[in-house]
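for the writeup, i need someone to sanity check this before i put it in the appendix. the sequnce is what the collaborator sent (i think, or maybe the updated version? ugh). structure was predicted straight from it, no edits. if anything looks off just tell me and ill rerun, i have time this weekend
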Amino acid sequence: MGRDTDLDRLVERFGLGPGARERLDRLVTVVLDHSAAPTSIRSRSAVVADHIADSLVAVELPALRSARTMTDIGSGAGFPGLVLAIANSEAQVSLVESNGRKCHFLTEAVEEARIGNATVVNARVEEWSAGIGANDVVTARAVAGLDVVAEYAAPLLRVGGVLIAWRGRRDGEEEAAAARAAAVLGLEPEPPRHVSPYREAEHRHLHVFRKIGETPARFPRRPGIPRKYPLGNASPPRANGAPRRT
């Protein structure tokens, strides 16, 4: 992909608004020029394909286009959160990241790419009380297993909102675990959507979970508990996070 055409093609493909190309270009430059950018992808063509295009595939979902409040959990280098903030300038986007150094990078990226509708939140997602029930969309890319991601996201969503999780090749066991967790959390999984961010990409999927009922008051659980005792386990954990005896 060439420097002058890659982003033009993406802007046209996804129907992005005025100014999006310039901000995307600035974001790519920040990632390439910042020595502390938390990504191992260092060439322009790879950043555009593996980060920008891969993030933009969610724009094809109606829920993403209509969202007015969004949260990206475990934002890291800002993908997909920063890209989706550019794509939907009407939405207020929170980038939740627990690592202070990554938050420093995200803050600089927001400023240098002029993404005025994105806010960096330095917090564990389980402890971010300001986000409870406040989001139309929650996104997660390369954060944790689907069942854990569902638990992180559910308390943050309003009823009717959706979680969008990026995944590669489908895994039946992981999807079954996520469905078990979703049933506890007030979420309903939709059929996974195969996506093609660029020609060479294979086995890319978006997993969408819609919030159909209130999440029980015992969520979010304490930090670390969702990973230690995932809801998707065949033997569900107790309310206090400890595993059941068998």
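DSSP finds nine helices and eight strands in the chain. Strands lie at 69-73, 92-97, 118-122, 135-141, 157-167, 187-189, 193-195, 204-211.
thx in advance!!
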